[in-house]
Design brief:
By secondary structure, the protein is α/β, with parallel strands linked by helices. It is built from 22 helices and 14 strands. This is Syntaxin binding protein 3.
Length: 586
C-alpha cells in the first residue's frame, strides 16, 4: 500500500479492500490504474486481474470480485459468466455508481445464488492527480456542443451522476453555484443539485445529510477560450502540447538506440515536483540533481548530457535507479527546449501580447493585426497559425465577415474553416457585432513576478481566488443551492498570501470543487495547485469531462459541424488576404 500516493483524490479512492481474482471493465481498469499498482492489489491478496469482456478460463473453485460500471453491456457479461456454466464459486459485485433497477433485477433473476455482495461504491470518476479528476468522457464535447447532437441531455445526466460520486467519495454535500449567461451551466447545476439531494436521501446511514463546508462551481469551456490555445511554458503543459505523449506515457530513445518509456503520473515524484515549474527552471534543476548524485559518488564535474548519464550508469550500477528517473526527464526537457528554440519562442511573444492585450512593458496593443501579421508571414505550421488567428479574434471580441474571410485564405484553411467558425457553438463570438462582450474585469497582476513569455493567467485562477475570498458576484454566479453561511473559503485570506498549512490541515477545512463542462487544460489544473498553496484551510479540486491539449481541442471544435460552416462564408465572394498583407505575400 505504500506505493499509493499518500494524499489527495487517489488515496481517497484507494481505500476499498478488494479476493484472488478481480474482473474489470475498461473504465474500472483505468480507474484502478490511476490510483494503485499491481503490487498494491497483490498486497490485498488479489493475484489475477482479468477483462470482463474477454474470454476467460473458468476457475470454479475460486471467488471473484467484479468491479464494473452499471451498464447493460457489463451486466450482460456478468450474467453470461454464471447463467449456464458458472465460471467462479461466488461473485462479489461492486458497481462504480447507482445500478438501474432493471439491470439489478436481471442479475437477481439469473445469478442470485452466486452473488455474495452487491454494492454501489460511488467511484465513477478518474482521480488523475491529488487535486484533479476527470469523467474520462472526451466524447461529451461533441454531445454537448454539436448542433446535431441527439444525446446532449443523456450526456449531461451521466456527467452529473459522475460528479455526484466524486462528492460522495469526498463525503461532501456542497452548495452549488454556476456561471451565468452560459448555455448549459444552469441546466447542469440543477441536475447535479437534484442528484446530490437524492443521493443523500438514500444514504445507508438513515439520516439526511446536511450541506457541508464545500462549494461546487460549474462552468463550461467557452468561459475562457484563450488558455487552452496558448503555448504554455510550464513543464507539464508544454510537454503535452509539443511532445507526442499518449496515455501519460513518454517514449524516447536512449543514446544506445534502445526504446524506453516513462510514465508521467503521481508515482513519479520528480514529475510531481517539476510539472508546474517553468521550463527554464526545469532545465536548470535536473542537471543540478544529477550533479549532486555524481558528486556523492566522486564523479568528475562535467556538463550533464544524456550520453554522460548512460556512461555513469554503466560504471555505477548502484545509482542506476536514481539516474534512470532523471534521464527520462532530462530527455523530455531537452525535447521541449528543442521545440521552444525552433518555433515556440517567437510565437509566444505574439500570443502573450494578444492574450494579455499589452506588451512586456505594459503598453496596450493598439493594433492586434500588427501583432498577428509576423506570425502569418512566417512559415509556422497551419495549426500554430490557427491558434494565433483565434487569439487575435478573441482579443477583439470577434471580427468582421470580410476580415475573417481574408484570414482564412491566408492561413490556407478554406476547406477547414470550421476550426474557427465552430467556436460560436461554445458561445464564443467570432463574427461581430456580438450581443455581449467577452471582455471581463481581470485581477490586477501587474506586480506579480512572471516570465516575459508567460504573462497570461488562466481566467479560472481569478474565479478560484474570488471564490475562496468570498468575492464572487451573485449575479454572475447565482446559487443553485446555498452552502452554509459560514463558508467563505475558511478564513477568506488573500489567495496570494503564502500559507504553511499542511495537506491534512487543509482537508479539515473547506473544499472548493470546480467542474468545467467541455474539458480543462493543464494550465487550469496548475492553477488549482497554486491557489491551494496560497490559501489557508481550503482545498481546491478541479475536474471536467476530460483533459484537453490544444490539438485535441481544435480537433473537437472542427468536428462539431461542417455543412453549415461552408454555407456561412459561401456568399463572401473571392477570398483575399488581410488588409496588412499584400497579394504578392499571399
Amino acid at each position: 500500500m505504500a506505493a499509493v500516493t499518500d494524499y489527495g483524490l487517489r488515496k481517497v479512492v484507494w481505500k476499498s479492500k478488494f479476493t484472488p481474482i478481480m474482473i474489470l471493465d475498461p473504465f474500472t481498469t483505468k480507474l484502478l490504474s490511476s490510483c494503485c499498482k499491481m503490487s498494491d492489489l497483490m498486497a490485498e491478496k488479489i493475484t489475477i486481474v482479468e477483462d470482463l469482456f474477454k474470454s476467460r478460463e473458468p476457475v470454479p473453485e475460486m471467488k471473484a470480485i467484479y468491479f464494473m460500471s452499471p451498464t447493460a453491456k457489463c451486466v450482460e457479461s456478468f450474467i453470461a459468466d454464471f447463467k449456464t456454466n458458472p465460471k467462479y464459486k461466488a461473485a462479489y459485485v461492486y458497481f462504480t455508481d447507482y445500478c438501474p433497477d432493471d439491470l439489478f433485477n436481471n442479475m437477481k433473476l439469473y445469478c442470485s445464488k452466486y452473488i455474495r455482495v452487491c454494492k454501489e461504491i460511488n467511484m465513477n470518476f478518474m482521480p488523475l492527480e491529488a487535486q484533479v479528476f476527470s469523467c474520462d468522457n472526451p466524447g461529451a464535447f461533441k454531445s454537448i456542443y454539436s448542433p446535431k447532437s441527439q444525446d446532449k441531455q443523456k450526456t449531461l445526466e451521466e456527467l452529473a451522476d459522475q460528479l455526484v460520486t466524486l462528492c460522495a467519495t469526498l463525503d461532501e454535500y456542497p452548495g452549488v453555484r454556476y456561471k451565468n449567461n452560459m448555455e448549459n451551466t444552469k441546466i447542469f447545476a440543477e441536475l447535479v443539485d437534484k442528484k446530490l439531494a437524492r443521493h443523500y436521501e438514500l444514504d445507508d446511514s438513515g439520516t439526511k445529510k446536511g450541506k457541508t463546508q464545500a462549494q461546487l462551481l460549474i462552468l463550461e469551456r467557452g468561459f475562457d477560450p484563450v488558455s487552452p490555445l496558448l503555448h504554455e511554458l510550464t513543464y507539464q503543459a508544454m510537454a503535452y502540447d509539443l511532445i507526442d505523449i499518449q496515455n501519460d506515457t513518454y517514449k524516447y530513445k536512449s543514446k544506445d538506440g534502445l526504446e524506453k518509456q516513462a510514465i508521467l503520473n503521481e508515482d513519479d515524484m520528480l514529475w510531481v515536483k517539476l510539472r508546474h515549474k517553468h521550463i527554464a527552471e526545469v532545465s536548470e534543476q535536473i542537471p543540478k540533481m544529477v550533479k549532486e548524485i555524481s558528486a556523492s559518488k566522486k564523479q568528475p564535474d562535467e556538463k550533464i548530457t544524456i550520453r554522460n548519464l548512460a556512461q555513469m550508469m554503466k560504471k555505477m550500477p548502484s545509482i542506476r535507479k536514481q539516474l534512470t528517473e532523471k534521464t527520462a526527464h532530462l530527455q523530455l526537457a531537452e525535447d521541449c527546449m528543442q521545440c521552444f528554440s525552433n518555433n515556440v519562442e517567437k510565437l509566444c511573444k505574439a500570443e502573450q501580447d494578444l492574450a494579455v492585450g499589452s506588451d512586456v512593458d505594459g503598453l496596450k496593443v493598439k493594433d492586434p493585426m500588427r501583432t498577428l501579421l509576423p506570425v502569418l508571414l512566417h512559415p509556422y505550421s497551419t495549426q500554430d497559425k490557427i491558434r494565433a488567428v483565434l487569439l487575435y479574434i478573441f482579443s477583439l471580441g470577434g471580427t468582421t465577415d470580410e476580415n475573417l474571410s481574408k484570414l482564412i485564405q491566408h492561413v490556407k484553411i478554406e476547406d477547414e474553416r470550421e476550426f474557427i467558425l465552430n467556436w460560436k457553438e461554445l458561445g464564443v463570438p467570432i463574427i461581430t457585432p456580438s450581443f455581449f462582450s467577452r471582455k471581463s474585469s481581470r485581477r490586477d497582476r501587474s506586480q506579480d513576478e512572471t516570465y516575459n513569455l508567460s504573462r497570461w493567467t488562466p481566467v479560472i485562477k481569478d474565479v478560484m481566488e474570488d471564490a475562496v475570498e468570498n468575492k464572487l458576484d451573485a449575479k454572475d454566479w447565482p446559487h443553485q443551492s446555498e452552502c452554509p453561511a459560514a463558508w467563505n473559503g475558511s478564513g477568506a485570506v488573500s489567495a496570494r498570501q503564502k500559507s504553511k498549512t499542511t495537506q491534512d490541515e487543509r482537508r479539515s477545512g473547506s473544499r472548493l470543487i470546480i467542474f468545467v463542462l467541455g474539458g480543462i487544460c493543464f494550465s487550469e489544473m496548475r492553477s488549482a495547485y497554486e491557489v491551494n498553496q496560497a490559501v489557508k484551510s481550503c482545498e481546491v479540486i478541479i475536474g471536467s469531462s476530460h483533459i484537453l491539449t490544444p490539438t485535441s481541442l481544435l480537433n473537437d471544435i472542427k468536428a462539431l459541424r461542417k455543412e453549415q460552416c461552408l454555407m456561412l462564408l459561401s456568399n463572401h465572394g473571392r477570398l483575399s488576404p488581410p488588409s496588412h498583407v499584400s497579394n504578392q505575400e499571399t
